[in-house]
């Protein structure tokens, strides 16, 4: 790798550090690394890599550097880096490799902000869980004929399997929703606001046509709650 290629590497969206193999001190850092640490480049250079991390991660980072130096391996680990401006630990993914610049070897550390990746995983897990709950509810609608038992079982699924604090079943009457059965702790739950959002969705046509066989609609998933609409009179 030549100086121009390394200069291009510094312009990437990941944090980049150039480390001297002998002193194990930082020789160069890019703008993204400044953002991740909340430190200026002047306050990063000439320090050891471990100074950028919280005490709980220092041993792991030391071992990582030694592995890089002894085996020349490049692999990924998940750790936290400390941001001096935000005063908190930031989850990152670190990889490293040995490069040669002007006939001298250096260690390059790549530090990637993993907040976006973690958030995407969290959203995927959340949506998957919601659809599993709705699948169980739809199964219950098909199997149970007694209305009171059906309502009780649906609420139990939402609270028990879904881990929700509060759930209710409401009847659509024109543009209004009348609560027929509720369960759980509604403390800190703005039920009125939830109903208002549902009414708005119904009026705007966001709720799709009912399934003609079991009367279940495709669910609407909001930021902090979900809904599945069904018509009892269509149930077979």
Can you tell me about this structure?
With 236 residues, the protein is α+β, with helices and mostly antiparallel strands. The protein has 2 domains: 3-113, PAS domain (Beta-Lactamase, 2-Layer Sandwich), CATH 3.30.450; 118-234. Helices cover 40% and strands 26% of the residues. The protein has 7 helices and 9 strands; from the N terminus they run H-E-E-H-H-H-E-E-E-H-H-E-E-H-E-E. A hairpin with a 2-residue loop joins strand 6 and strand 7 (176-184). Helix 5 (115-143) runs antiparallel to helix 6.
Into how many domains do the coordinates divide?
A: 2
Q: What percentage of amino acids are in beta strands?
A: 25-35%
DSSP, total strands: 9
Through-space gap between termini: 70 Å
Shape: elongated
Tally of helical runs: 7
Helix and strand sequence:
HEEHHHEEEHHEEHEE
Sheet/helix structural class: alpha+beta
Uncertain parts: 207-226, 228-236
* Helical proportion, percent range: 25-40%
Biggest sheet character: 5 strands, antiparallel
- What is the rounded Rg? 27 Å
Average pLDDT: 77
Strand order of the largest sheet: 2-1-5-4-3
Compile the SSE list and pairings.
Blueprint: H1 3-10, E1 15-20, E2 26-29, H2 31-37, H3 41-44, H4 55-71, E3 77-83, E4 88-101, E5 104-113, H5 115-143, H6 147-161, E6 166-173, E7 176-184, H7 191-204, E8 220-221, E9 226-227
Antiparallel strand pairs: 1-2, 1-5, 3-4, 4-5, 6-7, 8-9
Helix pairs in contact: 5-6
């Amino acid at each position: 790798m030549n100086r121009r290629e390394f200069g291009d590497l510094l312009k990437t969206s990941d944090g980049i550090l150039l480390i001297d193999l002998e002193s194990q001190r930082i020789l160069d850092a890019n703008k993204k690394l400044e953002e991740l640490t909340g430190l200026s480049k002047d306050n990063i250079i000439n320090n050891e890599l471990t100074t950028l991390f919280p005490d709980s991660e220092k041993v792991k980072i030391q071992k990582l550097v030694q592995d890089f130096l002894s085996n020349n391996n490049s692999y990924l680990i998940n750790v936290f880096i400390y941001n001096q401006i935000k005063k908190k630990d930031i989850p990152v993914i670190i990889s490293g490799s040995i490069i040669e610049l002007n006939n001298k070897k250096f260690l390059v550390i790549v530090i990637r902000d993993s907040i976006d990746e973690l958030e995407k995983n969290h959203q995927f897990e959340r949506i998957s869980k919601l659809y599993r709950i709705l699948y169980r509810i739809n199964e219950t609608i098909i199997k149970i004929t007694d209305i009171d038992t059906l309502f009780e079982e649906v609420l139990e699924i939402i609270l028990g399997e879904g881990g929700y604090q509060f759930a209710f079943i409401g009847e659509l009457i024109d543009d209004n929703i009348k609560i027929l059965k509720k369960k759980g702790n509604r403390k800190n739950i703005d039920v009125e606001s939830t109903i208002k959002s549902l009414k708005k969705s119904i009026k705007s046509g966001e709720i799709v046509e009912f399934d003609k066989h079991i009367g279940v609609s495709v669910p609407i998933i909001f930021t902090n709650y979900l809904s599945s609409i069904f018509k009892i009179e269509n149930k077979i």
